Amino acid sequence: MSDTSLTIDNILVPELTLCNVPASSKKRVLETIAEQIHEHNDSVNESQIFNNLIARERLGSTGIGQGIAIPHCRLEGLEQVIGVLMTLEEAVEFDAIDNQPVDLLFALIVPKEATSEHLELLSQLAEKFNERSFCDALRQCEDAHTLFQRMTATSG
Q1: Catalytic residue selected from 38, 72, 118, 145
Q2: Contact at 8 Å (CB) between 69 and 96?
Q3: N or C: which end of the chain has fewer CB within 10 A?
Q4: What string of DSSP letters covers 9-37?
Q5: Would you say residue 25 has pLDDT above 60?
Q6: Does residue 72 carry a catalytic annotation?
Q7: Full-prediction pTM beyond 0.90?
């Protein structure tokens, strides 16, 4: 595998895979994402991540429909791409394309310069999340370990 090839499998870590997260709103979900990333990597600024995610949402919701959202943003000074996979305890309003509340999210924080990688990862995520059976399998996970395993299992 070349260093330039970014895949979901090599950006997601078990520590940033969260199952049945309690959240009351879209804002709270984005705050949780920023908190978790900062906890995992304290060199990144929590409020900067949160503000960038909010700014991106203002351009248009990252809720792609069917209860799924892919919040993402670029971050100045970030060394490598960070992914956060989350299922929510209860779906929250996310201004999604289909007006359905969201309960499955994959957040993507990428270095400011990483344009093509960013788009490639978004495309991979959209493709995976397009498979209803895959999404159902993720939603059925009861713990973060299983969720991580299902997300990173190579699909045939």
Answers
A1: 72
A2: yes
A3: C
A4: HHH--GGGEEEEE--SSHHHHHHHHHHHH
A5: yes
A6: yes
A7: yes
